[in-house]
Write the structure tokens for this entry.
Amino acid sequence: MSCLLMRAAERAQLAMMLEVCAYPKPGNVDRCHDYPDTRLEHFLASTIFARTALEEAEQGTGRIGEIIKHAVRDTNCHLGGNTHFGAFILLIPLIYGKGIPGALSAIEKTDVSDAVAFYKAFAMTSVKMNTTDELDVKDPHTLTLIRERDMTLFDIMRHSAPNDMVAREWVTGFPLTRRGADLLRQSGEGRQAIVQAFLTLLASEPDTFIIKKHGLAVARETMYRAREVLDGNHSLEAFDADCIARDINPGSIADIVIASIYIALGEGWSWDS
Amino acid sequence: MSCLLMRAAERAQLAMMLEVCAYPKPGNVDRCHDYPDTRLEHFLASTIFARTALEEAEQGTGRIGEIIKHAVRDTNCHLGGNTHFGAFILLIPLIYGKGIPGALSAIEKTDVSDAVAFYKAFAMTSVKMNTTDELDVKDPHTLTLIRERDMTLFDIMRHSAPNDMVAREWVTGFPLTRRGADLLRQSGEGRQAIVQAFLTLLASEPDTFIIKKHGLAVARETMYRAREVLDGNHSLEAFDADCIARDINPGSIADIVIASIYIALGEGWSWDS
């Protein structure tokens, strides 16, 4: 078997594994760094447990909201908290639609049942929302509101897009995912290319996960510092250490990089040099 | 879903992942150390690609030799060389037989077709044999000899047992696998327990992978030094650094520890503290 013949579900698992192992990545869990409650092993366990849901997406039959719910449910059995919620939001339509154009068609076909399943998945995670959000996942009326307004999962993503760059990928046609895949292919092979693509995306947009946790100023500062590292004016290791000390972890860029690796692997990019 | 409800194939994948991530492990690839040609990512990619063969074992229908061949074939698509051949030899009957007693029954039922499939799997790896071995995998007459003598896969393991501690597990009833599982349960949870079980097994028998590569004297010295580390008379980090410098990697103990983790997980041992 050539790795080029691997199944889409395996390619997605490989992308999840390669992203978390790549180092040094500023602020995130990587081969050299754990958080006290979320460790490398938690990310890798989720990579294993996600298989069944990723295979469901590969079959392209079930509903996207339900498949995202299954992925969250099946990877929720360890003590490491949420590891891949954002990644599943990107990977599942990309697998289901066999690429970005098909993902966009699939997204347009989501309905209120997908939105409800997605909110049930969301409620299983500890992912933070914006405190002012009208569709608060902790509020039992939210599901009623979604049903009353007959909101599709695409509507939910449109609602979330201003504050969430993962949701924004659905609405804007996966531009950062695409850009990350191109960066990987331009940056050579394997681990170094992943770090390079990660830093370049981080330098181009404020990470919305950082915004939710620390506010826009810190997200912007992180973006500028990633640019300084790329320009050779700042050490990556020092940047990483500072992010870790201040609990700044660019989790949304990490989700997008996973989707980028998935796409790049399908286009022949080599992780294995 | 509770992790206690995980499928046998997932438990085996989790065991493969946890073993390679545990550190520091003297001489082997771990979270802190790669070999130039075989890296952490290769071990983790094999963990992902093994899924289909491990599921075959879980169904308990096909033939063990053929399933081992599928596991080797499916994990052979990267450039990292052999990562888990020994682990598959242990895991596949353990999954197939739903534990050690069932594995022993399954092993007794192997026939010449299992032996032939196994040799074909062996030929796909770069695993070394003893140079004086009559059943040399590189010799095209070996398959003829196996067929002429009507050797079962159990016969092959009996033939290999004196020089290979993984084969010996088949013949002697998985005593080291069992002991490793008990050690894990006695040593607490997670990563530290894996390192402790690894060192204790390493201190109890010369690793046959080291014997094949460096001879018995080096394997014995490694065993004594593991004992010194356990007794607190030598630092684990210094032992690890020295093994790496001298290219001494206890690969057979690593295979057995994977099987031990698999058994311990099924008995409720917690990897996740």
